[in-house]
Amino acid sequence: MRKNIVKIILDVSLAITFVLLMNPRVFNGLLFHEVAGLVIGVAVLVHIGLNYQWVVHTVKKIFDRSLSGKTRFSFLLNVLLLLSMTGIIVTGILISKVVFPHLLSGENHALREIHDVFAKLTLLLVGVHIALHWQWIMGVFRKMLKTKEGNWNKKAIVTSVLILALFIGSMQWLATNVKPNEAFKPKFEQKVAQASETFPPPGKFRERPHEEHHGNSHPLLVILGHFTF
Question: Which of 21-30, 79-88, 151-160, 164-173 has the highest mean pLDDT?
């Protein structure tokens, strides 16, 4: 049970961090995006390590007819997830502007597009992965929130509510106090902003406020939007 609780905590943290990375302007922008992306890479390895016995057992029996179709599908899904996550991390490192700024010079739009495709594919695979393990997830939560006699564990419920409130409060505080670093805006946007400040256009010709390409960057809205998907 303790191992399952560790798995749940790790997996929930992975899922929340991953959906936050779907919008590169969350918190302070590229710094969080790149560092958290590398942390996810390490966390995925830990996730595989926690499920090492299942992986070895399934690999040994992959050609055994007694292996259920659900297990085969789950194994294939995990392989695809590992490949897509590897694709995200490798392309992310190559286009890095903060952690590894000197690997590639200039903008590489092709790699950015590939990075984006891998991210969307991984989001889809994560959704299928959660659906496939939904009964196990609910079973672990029931054991966490109920006693052996089947009654609700009040302490566990209160703790869960406090953790949720703390999480929501933290996200709101970070969204309010940590803004995207303007230094990482595209050079064209910086030049346009500087020109506008130097030679402000007449009021009737002023453009509407720039809408973010990635939508609203408030972390709670990003999490809600992608988990709804």
Answer: 79-88
Helices (H), the chain: 2-21, 30-50, 52-60, 69-94, 109-132, 134-145, 154-177, 187-198, 219-228
Contact residues for 228 (Cβ-Cβ < 8 A; gap 6+): none
Is residue 174 within 8 A of residue 166, CB to CB? The reply is no
Q: How far apart are the first and last CA of the chain?
A: 30
Among all chains, which residue has been given the structure tokens 């406020």?
209
Contact 197, 154 (CB under 8 A): no
- Minimal CA–CA distance to 119: which of 87, 153, 145, 79? 87
| Three-state SS at 165 | helix
Q: CB–CB of 15/130 below 8 Å? A: yes
Q: What is the pLDDT of residues 140-160, one digit of tens each?
A: 888 888 877 778 888 888 988
SS3 152: strand
Label residue 205 by pLDDT band (50, 70, 90): very low
Q: How far apart are CA 186 and CA 53, in angstroms?
A: 46
Which amino acid belongs to residue 69? Answer: G
Instruction: Say whether 18 sits in a helix, a strand or coil.
Output: helix
CA 184 to centroid of chain Cα atoms: 21
Residue 199 confidence class, pLDDT cut points 50, 70, 90? low
pLDDT at 218 exceeding the cut of 90: no
How far CA 199 is from CA of 190, 207, 228, in Å, comes to 14, 14, 44
H-helix or E-strand spanning residue 173: helix 154-177
pTM across the whole model: 0.74
